[in-house]
């Protein structure tokens, strides 16, 4: 897909985020975009939290007139590079042992956060990266967002389709099970034909739209930019 429809700013390797941090609904939140935007986009980040790549992604979405909010649902407890260093296997195992069970603890905070925005915005889209996708699936019955976007979705299962009752965009990487992703897409399309999008990126690693994105140039950077173009086009087509 070309960027002609959206004309997003160019992706940069060295990047200074355009948003700011404040406390919204009791949570530290990265906020960017016009306050009077009709559509708000709530992001549930991946396990690396506020990485430079995901902040740039939020800014790219906001550049098209959306109010983008990224709450600190993990309250500062993110995966750090040192967990992957030799000798830290026990710490790494301990951190990741919180998933997928720990996802359940985020359902209520995410639902409340999304619901609290509805008085100021006519539509709410939610974007989940990695584990964040599964949170959105579990929270949807109470959050009632108006669209769901899953970026390299972790823990995807065929029954996820049962919970998706709004337009959905799925952007799996080469690390996801395409049998599962195709089943979800086919099922939700049967419920609402033409309102959903599935675009796989088989050559990209899990996390390429967030902390594992390589923005130094080449195909990985092009695919990062393309992914955000697809997200914005989906938002424009949906709302």
From TrEMBL:
It holds the Pfam family DLH. Residues 28-236 form the Dienelactone hydrolase domain. InterPro entries: AB_hydrolase_fold, Dienelactn_hydro. One of its GO terms (molecular function) is hydrolase activity. This is Dienelactone hydrolase domain-containing protein. It comes from Kwoniella pini CBS 10737.
